[in-house]
Amino acid sequence: xxxxxxRQSVVIAMIYLLVQNCVFSQDSINNDYVxxxxxxxxxxxxxxxxxxxxxxxxxxxxGLTFRPNNGQEIKITVDRIIDFGTVKETAQVNAEQLFxxxxxxxxxxxxxxxxRTEKRTWVQxxxxxxxxxxxxxxxxxxxxxxxxxxLAESDPETVYLAxxxxxxxxxxxxxxxFQQFGEKWLDRPDYPACQLLSAGLxxxxxxxxxxxxxxxxxxxxxxxxxxxxxKAQLWRNRLAEATPSEAxxxxxxxxxxxxELRSGPHYLLGEVFVRLGHPDNxxxxxxxxxxxxxxxxxxALRSLQRAIETLESLGRTAEAEALxxxxxxxxxxxxx
Length: 336
Fold this sequence. Notes:
The chain is α+β, with helices and mostly antiparallel strands. It is built from 14 helices and five strands. It folds into two domains: about 15-35 and about 50-155, SH3 type barrels; about 165-330, Alpha Horseshoe (Serine Threonine Protein Phosphatase 5, Tetratricopeptide repeat), CATH 1.25.40. A hairpin with a 3-residue loop joins strand 2 (about 50-60) and strand 3 (about 65-70). Helix 5 (about 140-155) packs antiparallel against helix 7 (about 190-200), helix 11 packs antiparallel against helix 12 (about 280-290) and helix 11 (about 265-275) runs parallel beside helix 13.
């Protein structure tokens, strides 16, 4: 069972990276295309297949719905997809380039324009996932949350779960806003990604008890990525009391997660290990965040700051200064 869940996690990670990097690769003038592993149960059709035609839809639950040229519509599960692409419009090309350059504010404007003119729902969801990332990189979590709810309402088991703007540290100044965002979806298990975000936002509000109940339920989900993130959010309630054995167990859970889901858990493990008297381990976890997920800018900057403070407390000023230069080049101080 554990092996099956781990394989599912790898599949979800693969599809997330695929849709982020390849979904708009242009292959031919008029056709969408898909490359996939043929169903092994279909005699004589093993190995890879390539089809040209039209991508009808893409969801986390149903996979890719594809209408081949001169053929009948088929469904391809996410674990069988190798590559796919579609022709992109000028607004989309410009938005992608701005996002790659780190010009997130202008990229958002271009993505919003591209989404307004886009007719295909599956493409709109991909665009929305990048808008979420851009708002989160700018530190505008409330806007990132609004966009993620749009995305996950359209596709409850979204393939873009890795862009979910979960909170990983307490920001009491945003508690009221978090409560307002969290209330709508907290009692909606039929929208697991929305419920996960709502529960995470509600952990520091008056809805904390309901949030814990929701996270405990989501931790038993059939979706291994939902399960992993729900369990990690529950760690936030144990940061001040976690034992060494718990920390070791959490590290094992982290190792089983898809890589693009690990940044928040890395941050929490840093906080646990520094409290337990293992500063080197804490710094290692914190440094994973800016290295592995620089797009999660507020969390990356905060992790760098925590690593600097810890190194300075150990008298390792040269290492701390090197990180401080990285922090300065990254745009200044993280949010408190």
